[in-house]
């Protein structure tokens, strides 16, 4: 049996920091409200497009893997903030890094995109269809935020994370995954083009429309069920887990999930305070930081859980 080993990891966080106090200079909000409700203290704001963030994260991941771009045979970019609808972000990354032997596509499952992409890429490697895959989660959410709406403007940030997966005979990588979609809840989180997107042009402001408490309830339920499924698939349990890496949308939600899954706080990876919700990029950025600061070590078993608009949901059991 083939496995898809994580051989590279990288991230790109734009240097410009926007703090809660910065937001409070033009919105009716406060550091106290934002921290107590979400756990976010600051976020990054990019002045370059999603493809450029994706490219830097990809180059870092390739360097960590010690691979040349020529070696990559598939590039998948999880994103809901592509610079253009066509061509996709993945082809821009392919061009920027010079990876002529790769197929390239974007995948949109909102904030769940990276785990969805890992699920797809792992199976592509297990079937033998692909051998070296570059996976990226990249978002420039601040470009599309309505900065007059405090309920959404405070939540999101920009960034990108990447992984390289390579075929291996060792029992490593994404050992089990479960992805799902609760389509009856499609309406609880949406980001539409509104009336501003038509054949005459697009004025750049989209409307986030979401019912926070409903998302909270459904996300916790969906992620907990998905985590149970991956434990069942592998015969592992919470005691075998060295780290929980959840999607970073809200610290209270993460704490609640960790409690349900019985993972202690010292094993739960949280960086939302620094970056806010970077959608598809939260999982690879958090993985990258956990590797860099030693929270995650070679041989560790990691459980990841994600959710996003759709309402998409998923969990993965990763052996690094
Ligand atoms: N600053 C100050 N006050 C605010 C702000 C703000 N930035 N935003 C909202 N408020 C006010 C509201 O107007 C409301 O005031 P009112 O009681 O006078 O009407 C009050 O705060 C409470 O608002 P709620 O929306 O009920 O606040 P809640 O405690 O539910 O927190 C939050 C909102 C953080 C979004 C929470 O519901 C949550 O984290 N949900 C899950 C994650 C989520 O929905 N993320 C966004 C979508 S992206 C994704 O998750 C994939």
Automatic annotation (TrEMBL):
Which compartments is it annotated to reside in?
A: Cytoplasm
**Which Pfam families does the record associate with it?**
ACP_syn_III (PF08545), ACP_syn_III_C (PF08541)
Give the chief site where it resides. cytoplasm
What ranges does the record give for the region ACP-binding, renumbered to this chain? Answer: 248-252
Boundaries of every Beta-ketoacyl-[acyl-carrier-protein] synthase III C-terminal domain copy: 232-320
Q: Catalytic residues?
A: 111, 247, 277
Which top-rank group of organisms is this from? Answer: Bacteria
Q: What class of enzyme is it?
A: transferase
**Looking at the keywords, is Cytoplasm present?**
yes
Biological or metabolic pathway of the protein: Lipid metabolism; fatty acid biosynthesis
What are the entry keywords?
Acyltransferase, Cytoplasm, Fatty acid biosynthesis, Fatty acid metabolism, Lipid biosynthesis, Lipid metabolism, Multifunctional enzyme, Transferase
InterPro entries according to UniProt: ACP_syn_III_C, ACP_syn_III_N, FabH, Thiolase-like
Give the reactions, separated by semicolons, that this protein catalyses. malonyl-[ACP] + acetyl-CoA + H(+) = 3-oxobutanoyl-[ACP] + CO2 + CoA
EC no.? Answer: 2.3.1.180
Q: How does it assemble?
A: Homodimer.
Similarity comment text for this entry:
Belongs to the thiolase-like superfamily. FabH family.
Comment text on domains: The last Arg residue of the ACP-binding site is essential for the weak association between ACP/AcpP and FabH.
Protein name, UniProt field:
Beta-ketoacyl-[acyl-carrier-protein] synthase III
Gene name on record?
A: fabH
């Amino acid at each position: 049996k083939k496995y898809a080993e994580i051989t590279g990891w990288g991230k790109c966080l734009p240097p410009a920091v926007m703090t809660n106090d910065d937001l409070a200079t033009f919105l009716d909000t406060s550091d106290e409200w934002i921290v107590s409700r979400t756990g976010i203290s600051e976020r990054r704001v990019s002045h370059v497009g999603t493809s450029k963030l994706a490219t830097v994260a990809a180059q870092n991941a390739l360097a960590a893997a010690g691979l040349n771009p020529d070696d990559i045979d598939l590039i998948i970019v999880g994103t809901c903030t592509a610079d253009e609808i066509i061509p996709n972000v993945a082809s821009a990354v392919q061009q920027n890094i010079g990876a002529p032997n790769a197929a390239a596509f974007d995948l949109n499952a909102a904030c769940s995109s990276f785990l969805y992409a890992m699920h797809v890429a792992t199976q592509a490697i297990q079937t033998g269809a692909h051998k070296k895959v570059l996976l990226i989660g990249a978002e420039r959410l601040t470009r599309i935020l309505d900065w007059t709406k405090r309920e959404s403007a405070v939540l999101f940030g920009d960034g990108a994370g990447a992984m390289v997966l390579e075929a291996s005979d060792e029992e490593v990588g994404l050992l089990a995954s479960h992805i799902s979609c609760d389509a009856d809840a499609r309406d609880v989180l949406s980001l539409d083009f509104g009336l501003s997107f038509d054949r005459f042009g697009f004025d750049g402001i989209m409307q986030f429309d979401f019912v926070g408490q409903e998302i909270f309830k459904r996300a916790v339920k969906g992620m907990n069920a998905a985590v149970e499924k991956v434990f069942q698939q592998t015969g592992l349990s919470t005691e075998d887990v060295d780290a929980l890496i959840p999607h970073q949308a809200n610290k209270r939600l993460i704490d609640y999930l960790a409690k349900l899954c019985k993972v202690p706080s010292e094993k739960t990876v949280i960086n939302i305070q620094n970056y806010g919700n970077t959608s598809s990029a939260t999982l690879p950025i958090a993985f990258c930081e956990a590797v860099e600061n030693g929270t995650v070590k070679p041989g560790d078993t990691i459980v990841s859980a994600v959710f996003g608009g759709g309402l998409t949901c998923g969990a993965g059991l990763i052996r690094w």
